[in-house]
Every structure is written in structure tokens, then in C-alpha cells.
Amino acid sequence: MIARPTQFFAVLLMFCMTQAFLEAQDSHPSVPWTLDHLNLEGYHKHALLNGGPGVRVPKVDHLEALGLTYDIIETRNCDSQRDMYRDLFIGSHFDKNGMLFYPDGTNRFALMVVGGAVGEGNINDDCNNLPSGDDWKGGGGVFTLFLKRNRNLLGQSGQYVFDQFLKRGGAYSGFCAGSSIMAYRSLDITNYRDVGVDNASWLFERTGDQLAPYLGDQIEFHGIPTFGGGKLPTEDGIPVGADVLFEGTHIESNGVWQTAPLVWSWEKNDEDYGRMVVSGAHPETVSTGFGLTAAMYTYALDGGGGITVKSDPLQNGVAREMVRETEENQPEYTKIGDKQIHHFTFEVNDSRDRYLLLELAGAPNQNGGEPYDFRLYLNKDRPAFPSDHLHMGQGSLSDKTIYLENLNTLADGTWYVGVELFTTVELVENDWDEVYYTGPIEVLNGIAYELTATWRDRPILTCQESISNLTVGARLVQNTPNTITWESACLDEDARVTIDLLPTDGAQPRTLASAVSAVDGRFIWDTDQDPGSYHLRVTANHDATVQATSVPFTIVAPEPLIHVFSQSSMVDGTLHFDDCKYGIPCQSTLTLSNTGTAFSLVGASVVDAAGNPGNVFRMTSPDQTQPLVMPFPAHLFLDLGGRSSATLQLTYSGGKYPGVYYLELQSTRGTLEYQRINLCVNCR
């Protein structure tokens, strides 16, 4: 038997060792059921694998077998990573109520999973020391205290976050420490205390039919380890809200059989409350428990979720402004989060009102980038989703409309509108094992939009102001004219637009023009921009939401009009002068070829690395030309008429020591064109 403390301190000192003795698994098996009966749309991801200070995350194989998407947050128990976890999970300035919730307070994940304890040593503040399996600092107790003591900017603790996730329909599953943290006098989610069991390999036997829809006739699972786990206390009867799913048995060292409830569910008597399905042992760590673990996740999801419909219906012709911030505590009018779906209703009671115009106007990008991607869905008598709708909005990325003329031919009932913000972020890990969101992170605090439903007995003006089909060449040559075109609809003749150049790397945009006719749909740009990758954006000056963004294009430098060839040591633009000795000149001859038609004169100069004239080289050429007075300085001028060639001999008269110089070639076409050749003396 493993020595256990009193029940009061059991949670704080519970060491559910999932790090050691884990059975290796190859490719994960499949499961014989699907989640098709569940509607899991409207979440950022389906599941969050939560490994805060003192606990770790289970394997992802079970989620992948169920076809569930997931995010992972895992941290070691040291200062910088604890701070990272607090800001990401509980909340920060960038995400006020934390990664579990959308701005209006609804759940951002359908399922949360917490695994067993992590054994960690005395890790310093820099998170440098490796964990020691003999010096335990982790466990459910560390995690519990952390959640209780840390708060976000709204004053909400991590304990509050856990509780609210279940109150708002979240599904929860945990193993060992992941179950014990939910106990009474831990996070106080449930009404029972933690009780320990032997550290042994157990036989699990099904006690009811709750998991039969997934497991079928399978009623036993062998070889499930506990690693110092816990059981559901039933000495005084099964706690209110709990339901035993599997009993575990094993033979103690004295030959006596021990039996304990090791898999159970728990939920409150509240139809909106989510379902918790946990185990005090570790079926998630062994292949023999794979089906059981997947069934636990599925059963938890079956008891969670639920769709939140805004209780304030849309009014005829009245714009619904979804602009409130999280801290204003007005969920009916709060901004929308990433991959979230807001649900609305309206009713048309007069059969003469056969015309409907549904309009969605999303807020412009807060950072001047690509518009946010909004989606609009319409359904009858049930909520509208990407996979279940009668009509889908059309238009630009941020603005969508639905126009119908046959409402009176459909049965009476309630119309449902779904608004989705498809723009999202990605969770990534840096070199210090810290995770953070990347992308348009402003979506975490929500993006504003306006929704209007108008129904009448006569046609409704459906012309929507728009700018679209913004087009420019895929590959532009620097400092050459290029035509930018776009299409506009329903804009006034005197409407003006601003044209911005947006680097794809997120650098500061540049305004190319600010008062161009919107309806002309044409602008000639001289492409005076450094080479690189860019977008163009055209925005109506009177309404920043009316805009279009081009696909990416590249700007490249013009091809050099003077090509240089050498039959000697010319390698990758560098002309080598090898084995030069004191007092003995080194020579090389270059051929200069003009690839254009308008160039007639080329000036040649030699400079040192600092750009000063180099006096150790002498240049001669049979093609030298006059006059010598030119619009730029040079040591020698060559006649290079249209598509002709000339020779240039370079003689090095310096010492034997290595040196680097540059040959600069310039020609005129109203502007200067340059090509620089490296001259390397005794460099190799």
C-alpha cells in the first residue's frame, strides 16, 4: 500500500506519476463509432489538452481517432513558464478572459482534458534545471493552488475559469491528478473528496450501460495502472451527481481483493451544465485502455455543449451592433471571437412580407491588414451552421448579404441567423518551450460587426457598395509603370479611394495615393518600391469597410543592362587576381555587353571597400570614347551603342597583400544604372 495523507491534504500531495512506466504505443487504433451525432461547429478547436504547473497533458491519439481538433498548452513549474501559462489560460491584456472563453463568455473549446501529475525538481527561475524524478514538486496540489492564486485583468481566478467552463456546457475529462483537482476542498467543482488507492495494475469492469453506445459488448479492460491514483468515495453512498462507470479490482499483497470505483461521471442538476467524465487511474497511458479513454471523451461530449442563441431577436430594419467589450458584460451585444458562431432569430408573421434582405458588415482590420473573414448563414426553425443552412451570404470577406423573394412560400416559423468569424489564430511554441498565439491576435478580444434583417412586401434595394477584383501583375519590375485595376459597385461618381501597399511580412503599409476616383477603377503606379512580396489594398475614403485586397505579388529588381564576362577568374560576380607579386602587374580582360538599345556610353571606376577611388588599378580599352565630361564621374568611358560590346583591361599594380576592390559600371538613360563587380586580389 502507498501511504496516503488525510483526505483534506490528499489533493495537494497527490502524485499521479504519468511520466514513468508508460506503455509504448505505436500507431493508435481506430474506434468503431463516430461523433456525427454531435454538432461541434462554432469552436476554435474541439479540445484543449491542458497541462498547467504540476500536471501534464495526455496523448493525442484518442482525440485523433475521434477526428477531434485540439490545442495543447503545457508548462514546467518555473517562473517564466508559469507566467506564460497564467497569461494564456487565465487571461491577459491580449485575451481578457483567457483561452477557454470567447469575448461574450461562451466556451471556445468543447472539451478540456487534464492528465496526471508531473514530478519536477528544484527548477530555477530560468527553467534551466532538468526535472528529478526523486524530488517531487508537481501534482494536483500545485496546480490547484496556482489556479486559486492567479487572476486575470477581470479579477477572475483560474478556479473561476474551470468552474465557468462547466457551467457554460463544457465537457471535461481528467486522469489521476486531472480528476482529483475537481474534488471538494480542491477546486470545489464537485461535492466529494479524494481517496487514494493502491499503486498497482487493475482490472476494470463496466458497471452500467452508459458507455455501451461506444464500447458495445466490451465490459472489461485489463492492465490499467494507477500510479498513486484515486477513487470515487462511495462508503457513504454514491455522491450526488456522480455515476460510476467502471469498477477496478486487484489483489493486494496480503492476497485480499480490493475493489474501487475508478471511472465515473459527474454533473450538476442543471441542463446547461457540462458533463465531467474522469478516472482516478491511467487508462490513457496504455494500449489496453485506448477504447475506454476514447469512450470517456465521447461520453463527456455527449453531456456537454449546447447552442446559445441571443435572447434579443433581430428587429425589422434595425441594425444590431455587436460592439461591446468583454468587461462590459453585455453578451447579447459583445464582439465575436475566432471561429465563433453567433446565433440570432427573427420572425416574419405577415405573409405579405415575401422579401428579405440580410446584411452583415464586419469591422475593418484593426491593423490595416487583410479584412477579417466573416461568414453569414440563414436557416429555418433551427440554428444555422456551415454544415446546416438554407442560404449562405455572398460578398466581400467582411461584408455579406442574403436576399430572398419567396418568404411567403415557406412555412411559418422562426428564422435563425448564424454569423461566423472565420479568421483565427494559431498556437505555436518558441525555443524556450513557451506557447503563444500568432496571427491576428486581436480576434481573441473580439471583432465588431453590424447585422441587419429587413423584410417587406415589396422589393428591397439590394445594391451593396463594394470594391472587388483588385488586380495587378504577379511579378512587377522595379521602377517601371504598372497598371492597377479594380471593380466598384454602387459607389457615387465622386467617390474616392486610397491605395495602400502592404508588405506580406506585416511591415508598415505605405500609401501610394489617397484621392483616386473609385469608379474609374484604374491607377498607374511607377513601382518605386524595394523588391519584395506585397499586397495592394483599395479602400473607399467615405467608408473604410468598403475595400478590396489583392493576392500577393512580387517586385523584382530590373535585370542588369550591362553584362560582364571574363575568360579568366570570374566567379559569381567576383573577378580574382591570383598570385600577384610586388612589382609585377596582374592583368585581366573583361567583355562588357549592352543588352539594351538606348545605352551608348558606359563609365567605369574602381573604388575600395570604403567607396574611395582606387589608385592601384589602371584601366585601358581600345573602345575608350570622348568627350570626358559626363553627368557622372568615371575614370574611363566606353562606347556601348545599342546591343554592342567593348573590352576593358584591368591592370593591378599594387603590392602582394590581399585586398578587395569594386569595379562600378554606370550608363545613362535619363537615370543611372549600376552594376558592381568585386575585384579580389590574392583572396584565395
Task: Characterise this structure.
The chain has 684 residues and is mostly beta strands. The chain folds into four domains: 14-195 and 267-302, Rossmann fold (3-Layer(aba) Sandwich); 320-456, Jelly Rolls (Sandwich), CATH 2.60.120.380; 466-556, Immunoglobulin-like (Sandwich), CATH 2.60.40.10; 562-681, Immunoglobulin-like (Sandwich). Helix content is 9%, strand content 35%. The chain has eight helices and 41 strands. The strands form nine sheets. Strands 2-1-3-4-11-10-9-6-7 form a nine-stranded mixed β-sheet. Strand 20 (426-429) and strand 21 (435-438) form a beta hairpin. The longest helix has 13 residues, at 290-302. The protein starts with 6 loop residues before the first helix and ends with a strand. The model is unreliable at 1-26 and 132-136 (pLDDT under 50).
Rg: 35 Å
Named CATH topology of the largest domain: Rossmann fold
Helix content: under 10%
**Number of structural units classed as domains:** 4
Low-confidence stretches: 1-26, 132-136
Span between N and C termini?
A: 75 Å
Spatial strand arrangement across the major sheet: 2-1-3-4-11-10-9-6-7
Helix/strand structural class? mainly beta
Strand content: 25-35%
Total helical segments: 8
Major beta-sheet overview: 9 strands, mixed
CATH architecture classification of the largest domain: 3-Layer(aba) Sandwich
Q: Could you give the count of β-strands?
A: 41
Question: What's the rounded overall pLDDT mean?
Answer: 86
Overall spatial form: flat
What is the class of the largest domain in the CATH system? Alpha Beta
